[in-house]
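Worked Example 4.2. Consider the chain below.
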Amino acid sequence: MPPKDLQQLLSQVNTYLHNKYIWDASRDDSIPRLFLAHMSLVGWSLLISILIAFPIALLIIRFTRIYLPAISVAGLLYTVPSIVMFSLLVPITGLTETTAIIPLVLYSQIVLIRNFVAALRAVDPVLQDVGRGLGMSEIQLLVRVTLPLALPVIIAGLRVATVSTIALATIAPLVSYNDLGSLIFKGFQPYYPAQLVVAAFLITAIALVADALLLGVQRLLSRGRTVAVAQ
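Applying the procedure from the previous section yields the following structure tokens:
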């Protein structure tokens, strides 16, 4: 980009950021409201993803033969374009937040299931045998032994899923759910590069901050251990 064009773009970005209307939280299309909507969509999607992926991982640990079918289905779902997902879901769930959440949940499964299974398999069986020897039930063993030891690797997988979900959530405006992705879509109609730059910066910044926070949690939990997944 020539210096003149870059200078002009920076000037437009500065003007855009000083527009009081984009910061007015009483407006539905303001950055604060779009940010909260974006984080709500990401939060619910990740919560539901975990509630689905973790039981599947537990089943895989117990019945190892279902690993390949489960991963194959999750991988197949990941390859389905979001536009196709929306076209299938809209007649059923309508133009709602649910229609935006379902693809995000499905896209996260391939990452979460793989990492949850890896985390649970990485726990030393000897420690589990010790727990059983102390009279722990399977649930007590899971809560008191397996989960605490597997948590660093679980967080590693959650980092990947979180960053990808934050990015993928920008497609939600296609089903009339307004989040930070709305700034991108509206930035093309009409073409307004300053808004596109600000939207890209905000989404990237959110992803980096979320990843850094989870990395901090992972390192805190990994003290004295080795975590080799999704570093």
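The longest helix spans residues 31-62. Confidence is low (pLDDT under 50) at residues 226-231. Compare this with Example 4.1 before moving on.
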